[in-house]
Write a structure and sequence with these properties.
disordered N terminus; alpha+beta
Length: 433
């Protein structure tokens, strides 16, 4: 190995070591943060990122860099002047049934075999239903800086498997129903975000950059379960059961959030990136904070005397003081080929604490973009792992004279839309100067 090659190798190693140190520091800080109980939106408002399966941390430029990795704004070739006029990602999904299942069973008279098939499709942890939306408007990128206005809405519901079984098959003698594992959380908020990327090391085409996105968060509404318990049993003499549900709501609040990232441009062809979203976040819900509760109990009741004194219940709504909550912290680490007609990327996503919309199980994404002509990109991706179903994604768009219009669709375990466990779409449009 000659001296020149040795110097280059040492520089590359120093850049990689620096990235690892930065990533490890972010990782340690995230583990020290307080646990979050809020749901997280899992959609992509960038249609290009969604079409590539979300494997976009090392590829995102301009306005999209603010969404996926603000450190990219500090890299040469990633800085553009641009205005994204509108972007929207929307998703309604579940963890059990595909569109094909829906068409098969909706409106049909279910046989015993059909009910058994339905129950076998539901995971042990229960039937999960997620509705997410993420939108942005008039996002502006000016070189190393970006300013964006975003709106987020997320709702997550999980039903204990026994509840679905009861609905399908009814109760049996000496059967016990426990609602443990069920939950329902929802949140909506808007953010005004400022992003900045700064180079910290450069040698030829190699660059190391760090970046941050600081956000002012305006809470719109929240509903979260504080306590949910319930148990019912069937006996020869009748039913016995008791339960309690307590949840709190608010219709406004304010707070802050901080994302940190690092990006290492190995050369003009390959880039490594890492970001932690919501490394620090807090929303204080101070407008109309309320607690709502419902308690019930019944003892050896039968179907004939359920409306008599065998059943006792109580419900209440009270004003409470302002309460605070944080958004789930999630890390993304990606590696991408960034030049040529064929771009591709690999990405690893890791949540640090289990929460609705966030999983501690890692999720892997692969994505590619091919441009047969400069103005017509073709994109595809694949995602697996985490608490979400395996899925393919694809999309395209138009890019003429700096004006772009992109769209994306996410399916299920196959390329067919009938394998999708819900609907997941995205589009975005803007202009690069």
């Amino acid at each position: 190995m000659n001296t020149k090659t040795l110097v280059v190798s040492n520089r590359i190693r120093r850049g990689i070591v620096a990235t690892v140190i930065i990533t490890a520091t972010l990782l340690i800080l995230t583990w020290l943060l307080p646990e979050s109980a809020l749901p997280a939106a899992t959609v992509h408002s960038s249609a290009r990122g969604a079409a590539m399966g979300g494997a976009f941390t090392a590829l995102a430029k301009s306005v999209n860099a603010a969404k996926y990795n603000p450190a990219n704004l500090g890299l040469d070739g990633y800085q553009h002047y641009g205005l994204e006029v509108a972007a929207l990602g929307a998703s309604v999904t579940n963890n059990a049934f595909t569109l094909s299942d829906y068409n098969r069973y909706t409106g049909a008279v279910l046989s015993t075999a059909d009910k058994r098939d339905i129950m076998e499709k539901i995971p042990i942890e229960g039937l999960s239903i997620d509705a997410d939306i993420k939108a942005s408007a008039l996002s502006l990128a000016l070189g190393r800086f970006a300013l964006s206005v975003n709106g987020v809405g997320a709702a997550d519901i999980n039903l204990n498997r026994k509840i679905v079984d009861l609905v399908l098959n009814g109760n049996t003698f000496a059967d016990t129903l426990d609602v443990s594992g069920s939950y329902s959380d929802a949140i909506s908020y808007a953010t005004l975000s400022f992003s900045y990327g700064m180079p910290v090391y450069s040698s030829g085409t190699r660059q190391l950059a760090v970046g941050l996105t600081a956000s002012y968060i305006r809470g719109i509404a929240i509903e979260e379960v504080v306590k949910l318990r319930g148990l019912a049993a069937t006996y020869e003499a009748g039913f016995q059961g008791q339960g309690e549900a307590v949840f709190r709501t608010a219709t406004g609040g304010s707070g802050y959030g901080l994302d940190l990232g690092a990006a290492l441009k190995l050369n003009d062809r390959y880039t490594v990136g890492a970001r932690i979203e919501n490394l620090v976040s807090r929303i204080s819900w101070s407008k109309n904070p309320e607690e709502h509760g419902y308690i019930f109990e019944f003892d050896t009741a039968t179907a004939d005397d359920f409306d008599e004194d065998y059943v006792t219940s109580d419900d209440y709504s009270i004003d409470i003081g302002a309460f605070s909550a944080s958004l789930p912290a999630v890390m993304n680490v990606g590696f991408a080929r960034t030049s040529g007609k064929l771009l591709w990327a690999v990405e690893w996503t890791q949540g640090f604490r289990a929460a609705p919309g966030t999983s501690t199980k890692p999720r892997l994404a692969l994505g590619a973009e091919y441009q047969p002509v400069s103005w017509l990109p073709l994109r595809g991706g694949f995602m697996a792992g985490g608490d979400r179903h395996t899925a393919f994604s694809f999309g395209s768009g138009l890019d003429l004279y700096g004006v772009y219009l992109d769209f994306a669709v996410i399916t299920g375990a196959t390329l067919s839309v009938y394998s999708a466990k819900g609907v997941n779409l995205a589009f975005s449009t803007g202009i690069l100067f």
